[in-house]
Amino acid sequence: MTDASPASRDYRGTVFLPQTSFPMKGDLPKREPGWLERWERIGLWSRLRAQSEGREKFVLHDGPPYANGALHIGHALNKILKDVINRAAQMSGKDADYIPGWDCHGLPIEWKVEEEYRNPKGKYQGGRDKDAVPVLEFRAECRAYAAHWLDVQREEFKRLGVAGDWAGRYATMDFPSEAAIAGEIGKFLLNGSLYRGLRPVMWSPVEKTALAEAEVEYHDHKSAILYTGFPIIAGAPEDLIDAEAVIWTTTPWTIPANRALAYGAEIDYALVVVDGVADGIELVRAGQRFIVAEALIGSFAKEVGLAAFSVKRVFKGAELAGAIAAHPLRSWSGADDGYQFAVPLLEGDFVTTEAGTGLVHMAPAHGEDDFHLTRAHGIAVPECVADDGTYTSQAPGFTGIHVFKAHEPVWAALTETGHLAGKGFITHSYPHSWRSKKPIIFRATPQWFIAMDDGNQIRAKSLQAIAETHFVPDQGRNRIGSMVAARPDWCISRQRAWGVPIAVFVHKETREVLRDEAVLDRVCTAFAAEGADAWYRPGAAARFLGDGRNADDYEQVMDIVDVWFESGSTHAFVLRDRGLPVPADLYLEGSDQHRGWFHSSLLESIGANGHAPFKAILTHGFVLDEGGRKMSKSLGNVTAPQEVTQQYGADILRLWVMNSDVSDDLRIGKNILGQQAELYRRIRNTLRWLLGNLAGFEQGEATARKSDDEPFSGLSAGAYRALPELERWVLHRLSELDARMRKAVADYDWNGVYPELHAFCATDLSAFYFDIRKDSLYCDAADNPRRRAARTVLDVLHRCLTAWLAPVMPFTAEEAWLARFPSEDGSVHLQGFPEIPAEWRDEALAAKWDTIRGIRRAVTGVLEKARASGDIGSSLQAAPVLHLPEELLPLLPPAQWAELCITSDLRLTTTPAPEAAQMAESQPGVAALFAPAAGGKCERCWRVLPEVGSSAAHPGLCLRCEAVVEQAAA
Q: Which residues are Zn(2+)-binding (predicted)?
C-alpha cells in the first residue's frame, strides 16, 4: 500500500482538538439525583465538618419554615440563597456548619387537622368535633401531620442541592426544643417581664385566638359605617347642652361597647344647627344641633344629607373638658336600661381632622387608643364580645349576634333612639388572618404579655442592638427599628392546643403569678424527656408544683405560647445547646420578617440574654410571575420548584436566584427560566472548552503547579512574569473576580456577582481570549511556549471557575471538577477558593488592554462588514490595515495584532485613514481598512499566507504547521 500524495494528505490527526468526557448537554434532571447519592455515599457533609475542625465558625442560623405542605418557590429562593452563602463561606476557609430547622407548632397545623375533622370525605367523614377530642389525642394528630410534611420538605430541599446537617435538623416540636422554649419563657417569668394583663389584641373570631401582627395581612373589605350623636347632658357650656357630639365609625358593632368620647383640645369645633335636609333623608331632622370639627363640616353635611345648616359658634376643643354625654342607646327599648351610664368626653392627643367628625368614640375593649385613654381615667373595660365574635350579655339587646352581622341591628336601634345621623358602606383595607383569610377584630381579653419598657428595657436595648447590626440592604434597619420603637408590649399567649404551653401557675386567691425556679426546673426536665404533653397529663399541676403546695390553690395556665416566641427562641436550643457561637453571623429571610422572625428573635434574645441573636440580617424580596403579579392558583401563574427541577434541573433554578437582584421582588416564569437555561449553556460550554483543551495537561505541563492536592497553588513569580501579556491580563481579570467574590462573602451582598462571572465567561473568555488562543492551542507544537502558557492559564481558569461556581451550581461544578480530577471520593466541595497572588492584579496592564480591545473592535467591525458583503468567509482571509496615532504604535507589533484580530496578517500605519476606513468609537485617530490576505490557505491552520506552497514535503502547509507536523513524525 503506497502513501497518499503530499497534496491530498489529511492533517486533522495532527491538530490538538479538544478532548473531554464532559458532555455538551447538562441533562440535569437525570444527573443531579446521582450526584446527591454520591455525596451521601462518600459522607461529604461529615467530611467537611472534620476538614473544618479548628477553623473559624460561620453560622447562618436557619429561620424555620413551617412544616405544612410542599415547598413553594419562595422556599426555594430562601434556601438556595442560604446555601450559596454557606458554601461560599465554607470555601473561603470557614467552618460553615448549617443546621436546618422547622417550625411545627401553632394554628396552621391545627387548622389543617380540624379541616380533616370537618371534611365529609376525609378520614373521619366530617364526624369529629375538635372540642370533643381529648387534647393529648389532638396534639398527637398535629405532631404526626407536622412530621409528615417535615420529611417531605426535607427531601425537597435536598433535591435543590441544599447542603446541611439534615440528620441533625432541628424542629420546635422536638422534646429538647419544647423544654428549651419553656425555659426561655421561664426567664421572663423569673425576671419579672412576663405578666398577665387585659388589653386589646388582634383577635380571630374564626380561629378563636389572639394573633401576632406577623399573622395578619390586609385585604380590601366592605365595612358598614355610621354617624351617630351623643347628646351632651352635663359639664359643658349652656349652649352645648343637648347638642349631639357626632362620631363616625367603620365598626358599628363597637357602639354597644362605647364608654367615652375623645376630642382634640386645640381643634376648632363648630356648633351646627340643621336648617334643612335633602330630599329622601330621614335620619337627620331640622333643628338638630351637632358638634363637629369645623374643618369637617362640609364632608359631614354631604355624607348625612344636610341641605342647609348654620354655624352658631366655633370653639376650641378645650371647652369640652369635663363634659358628659349620654350613650346614644340610652333610651333604646331593646336594651332594658342597659346603657344608662355616663359617657365622658376626654382629651386625646391622637384625634385629628383628617376624616370623620373630629370626635372619636372610645370602646375600651376594641382599640389601642381607646383602651389607654379610658383606663387612664379609671373607666372599666367591658367584655362585650366573646371569643367566637358574638356579643356577650355585656352588650344588652345584642347578645348572641355576631359582630360582623351587627350593623343592621345597631342601625335599627340608633334609628329608634333618633341618634343615627348617617349610614352606609365603604370598601377599605382591613386586617385579615393570613390563615383563614377572614377579617379579624380588636378585642380586649386577659393575655400574657412581655413588657417592653420595664426594668429589663427590652425596647431600648433592642433599638441599640439594631443600630449595631449589619443590614443587607441597609434600609432594613429603619424598617425593623420603627416597628420596635412603636410596638406595644408583646402578647405571647394563644388560646389553642398545639404548641408549648405557657407553663405558669397563678394563685387563685391572690392572683399572684408563681415565680419559682424549682417549679420551672421540674417543668423543663419533664418536657425534655416527655415533651410538652406532660403539661396536659392528669396530675400535672401537683407534679410540677411539688411538695408544700396544694394544686387546688393554683390555676394551671393552659394558653400556649405564640409561635413567634418559639421560633424567636431557636437560637437558644439550636446554637447555644449545640456549642455554636451566639450571636449567629447571619439571619436571612424574606423582607416580611422584619415584623416576624427577625423581630421576635431580637426581642426574645434581648429579654432573655441582653444581646441580639445575630450580627447581620439579610433580606430578600418575594417571587412574582413574569408580569409582576402575585402568584396564585386561580391565575394559573404559579411556578413550583418541583416542576423546575424536573424540567430544567436545580442548577438552573439556583442560577436564577443568583442572577436576580434578591433585595427586590424577583420574577420567574417560562421565558425567564428559558433565559437562565441559555446562560447556563454558555457557562457549561466555557467549562467544556476548558476541559477539552486541558486534555493531558497533568502529564505534559504539571510544572505549572505544585501538586494536585492543593485547590490552587498558582504560578511562581518567575513563571508568571514569563507569561505573554494576554495571559497576564486574564490572570488580572481573575484577581478582580476573586476580590468581588471575597467581598460578597464578607458583606453577604451577592447581587451582581454571578452575572459578572457569566459576563467574564461569555465576553472575556469565549468571545475574546478563547477565540484568540484557539489557533495556538490547536495548531502550535505541544511544547510551544505560547501554547504552554495558554494551557497553564486554562488550568488556573478551570480551578477558579469550578470553585467559584460550586456554591451556585454545585452539581455542574462537581461534574466539571471530577471530569479533570477523577476520584472515588473526591469533590470540588472539599476544595477552597483559590488563593490569588497579589502580583496578578495589574491595573496598568488592564488599562493597556482596555485600549487594545477598543482598537480591536474597529478591526472586527471592518471584518464583519467584509463578511456580510461576501468579500470574505472567514477573518483569516483578511489582512487589514490598522491606522494608529504615533503614540499608540508601540502597543503591539503587527504579528500580535493579526493574532489578536484573528487575521492572517495585519499592517500598521501612522498615515491618516481614508474616508472608507472604520473609525474606532472610543479611540481618536484609530481606524481600520479592509484588505484581503495574500497567498494560499494552509490546510492545517487555515491561515492565508504567501509561504503556503513553498514546502516540497508539505505544499499545503504554512511553515509553522510544517515544522509541527515534521516534529511530531520524528
A: 938, 941, 958, 961
Phi, psi (deg, nearest 5) at residue 160: -75, 0
pLDDT at 385: 85
**Residue that is written with C-alpha cell 488592564 in the block:** 846
And the C-alpha cell for 188? 421572663
Task: Report residue 483 as a C-alpha cell.
Answer: 416597628
Q: What is the mean pLDDT of residues 212-226?
A: 79
Q: Is 491 annotated as a binding residue?
A: no
Q: What is the pLDDT of residues 169-212, one digit of tens each?
A: 999 999 999 999 999 999 999 999 999 988 787 888 777 777 77
**Structure confidence by residue, pLDDT tens digits, 876-917:** 999 999 999 999 999 999 999 999 999 999 999 999 889 888
Residue from 546, 544, 541 nearest 558 by CA: 541
Set of cell numbers at residue 92: 473561603
Cα 67 to Cα 73, 75, 158, 643, 669: the distances in Å are: 15, 12, 15, 20, 26
Q: Which residues pair with 506 in a beta bridge?
A: 513, 555
In the chain, % of residues over pLDDT 70: 97
Residue with cell 335636609: 277
Non-local (6+) Cβ contacts of 54 within 8 A are 95
Query: Would you call 869 exposed, middle or buried from its count of C-beta atoms within 10 A (0-12, 13-18, 19+)?
Result: exposed
Write the CA distances from 162 to 96, 154, 654, 729, integer angstroms. Answer: 13, 10, 10, 35
Instruction: Answer whether 203's CB lies under 8 Å from 440's CB.
Output: yes
Antiparallel, parallel or unpaired: β 623-624 and 666-667: parallel
CA dihedral over 163, 168, 173, 178, signed as positive or negative: negative
Q: Is 761 known to sit in a ligand binding site?
A: no
Does residue 958 have a known ligand-binding role?
A: yes
User: 3-state DSSP call for residue 449?
Assistant: strand
Measured from the Cβ of residue 851, the count of other Cβ atoms closer than 10 Å reads 15
- pTM (predicted TM-score): 0.84
CB 269 within 8 A of CB 358: yes
CB 66, CB 108: distance < 8 Å: yes
Instruction: For residues 92 and 380, give the distance between their C-alpha atoms in angstroms, rounded to a whole number.
Output: 62
CA-based nearest residue to 230, from 207, 197, 201, 259? 259
- Average pLDDT value for residue range 55-79: 95
Closest listed residue to residue 513, CA positions, set 188, 765, 759, 254: 188
Which residue type does 231 have?
P
Q: Is-contact 542 551, C-beta < 8 A? A: yes
Task: Let me know how many helices (H) and strands (E) the chain has, helices first.
Answer: 29, 34
Closest CA to 457 of 600, 572, 594, 610: 610
How far apart (Å, rounded) are the C-alpha atoms in residues 969 and 967? 5
Contact (CB, 8 A) for 856 and 891: no
Determine the Cα–Cα distance for residues 154 and 133; give it in Å rounded to an integer.
Answer: 30
Nearest to 281 by CA among 130, 401, 137, 415: 415
* Single-letter amino acid code for the residue at 186: G
What is the Cα–Cα distance from 70 to 39, expressed in whole angstroms?
24
From CA 156, how far away is CA 150, in angstroms rounded? Answer: 10
Task: Report how far apart, in Å, the C-alpha atoms of 76 and of each of 640, 655, 677, 679, 936 are.
Answer: 9, 12, 17, 20, 58
- Cell numbers placing 965: 507536523
Burial of 863 (0-12, 13-18, 19+ CB in 10 A): buried
What is the spatial distance between Cα 479 and Cα 483, in angstroms, rounded to a whole number? 7
The pLDDT value recorded for residue 214 is 67
Largest alpha-carbon pair distance within the chain? 132
Rounded Cα–Cα distance for residues 903 and 933 (Å): 8
Contact, 100 vs 815, CB < 8 A?
Answer: no
Q: Report how far residue 776's alpha carbon sits from residue 765's, in angstroms, rounded to the nearest whole number.
A: 15
- Cα–Cα distance between 177 and 499 in angstroms, integer? 11
pLDDT of 965 higher than 90? yes
3-state secondary structure of 808: coil
Judge whether 198 and 446 are in contact, CB under 8 Å: yes
Helices 597-609 + 458-468 axis angle, to 10: 120
